[in-house]
Amino acid sequence: MRLVYVDNNATTQVDGSVLEEMLPYFKEFYGNPSSLHTFGRQVAGKIDIARERVADLLGANSSEIVFTSCGTESNNNAIHSSLEANPQKRHVVTTKVEHPAVLNLCRYFGKNGYEVTELSVGKDGMLDLDELREAIRENTAIVSIMHANNETGIILPIEEIGRIVKEKGVLFHCDAVQAIGKIPINLRNSHIDLLSLSGHKLHAPKGIGVLYIRKGVRVNPLIIGGHQESNRRSGTENVPSIIGLGKACELAKASIGEYSNRVKDLRDKLEKGVKESIAKVKIIGEKSCRLPNTSNIAFEYVEGEAILLLLDMAGIAASSGSACTTGSTEPSHVLQAMGTPVSQSRGAIRFSLSRYSTDDEINYILERLPALIKKLQDLSPIFDDSLGSGG
Ligand code: PLP
C-alpha cells in the first residue's frame, strides 16, 4: 500500500545525513564528554561544534545553548527555573492555545500557589496585545507565549509581544518548537530571554531538545546533579543526538527558503484542491499568518477520528490535532479558544508537510480525500450538502 506522511508537526523522519553523523558516536567514539582522556575529548569537541550549529540557526551565541531531552523539558526548565529564581513573583502569563507542555505546567503552578493568566485569542488565533499589556503586573515572574501553534500553524507576533514584555521588565519565554527550521528567527535582535526547541520536529532524533537562555538571564536549574551544560542542566550528555541535532540545524538553516516556497506551494495546492472538491470545509486560520507547512482543515459535521481512520486505510497519516491529545474525544482546546463551532472542530484534521513532501503525495491525498469525506458526510444525520461549501 502507498504511504503518505503528512504528520510532520507530530514528528519528522531523521534526515539521512543527520543519522550518518550520529552513528560513529554510538560505538566508535563513546567517551563521556566530561572525561579528560582522549575518548572524552573526541566527543567534547563535537558537542562544541553542534552547539555552534544550533546557535547559528537561532542567531544566538553558543554559550546561550543548553541541551535538554526534549521540548517538554525545555519548557518545564524555562518556567520552573524562572519561578525559582524570582520567588517573590507569583504570577505567570500564558495563552489558552499553548501546547500542553506549557499550559498544563502553568495550570500545575496555578494549583500550587501561583496566579496564572491565560490570554484568549480571537477567531483568527491572534492575541489582543492590549490584553497582554494589561495582564502583566508588578509580580509577574514570566510570560510564556508560543511562536507558532502546533495545531493550526498560526504564527504569533513574538517581536511585538517581546517588546511589550520587556517594557514591563518581565522575563519572556517562547515555545518555538514548531517554528524553528520552518521560519527564520534571529534571537540577537529579539526580546526573547528563553526559547525552547525540539530535535524531532526538524529531522533530528527524538529525545533531544534545546533551551536557549539569553546571556545574563538568571535561572535556577531544574535538573540538579553534575556540572554538565555549565551547571544549567545536569546529566551525561546524549552525545549522538546532540551531534545529530547540530547537523539537523545546519540543514534546517539551508532549507528555510524551501519551506517558504516549495513546501508552502504544496500546502496551498492541498487547500485549494480541498476547497474545490469538498463541500462544507473551513481552513482554520486561513487569513492569518501561518507556518508554511501546516494546514488545519475542518470538515463540517463529520468526526475527525473517522476521517483519520479512513485516511489511514488509504495510507495517509495525518492528525486530529496535537499528538499528545490523540485518543481524546474532546474538541481541541486550541480550536475551542478560537471560538470554532463544535460542528467544525470535531472534524478538524491537521496536515503537516515537511521538506520531504512531494507534489505526487499531495495529488494522492486530493485523489482519495474527497470520496472519503463524501462517504462520511452521507452517513452524517445532520449534514446537508445543499448548503454548499463553507468559507
Ligand atoms: N511545544 C510544542 C509547540 C509542540 O508542538 C511540542 C510537540 O508537539 C512540544 C512543545 C513538546 O516537544 P517534545 O515532543 O520534544 O517534548
CATH architecture of the largest domain: 3-Layer(aba) Sandwich
Q: How would you name the CATH homologous superfamily of the largest domain?
A: Type I PLP-dependent aspartate aminotransferase-like (Major domain)
The small-molecule ligands in this entry are: pyridoxal-5'-phosphate
CATH class of the largest domain: Alpha Beta
- Give the DSSP E fraction (strand runs of 2 or more residues): 5-15%
- Briefly note the CATH topology name of the largest domain: Aspartate Aminotransferase, domain 2
Q: What is the share of helical residues? A: 25-40%
C-alpha geometry: globular
Order of H and E elements:
EHHHEHEHEHEHEEEHEEHEHHEH
Give the overall average pLDDT: 95
Tally of structural domains: 2
> Which strands sit side by side, in order, in the main sheet?
2-8-7-6-5-3-4
Structural class: alpha/beta
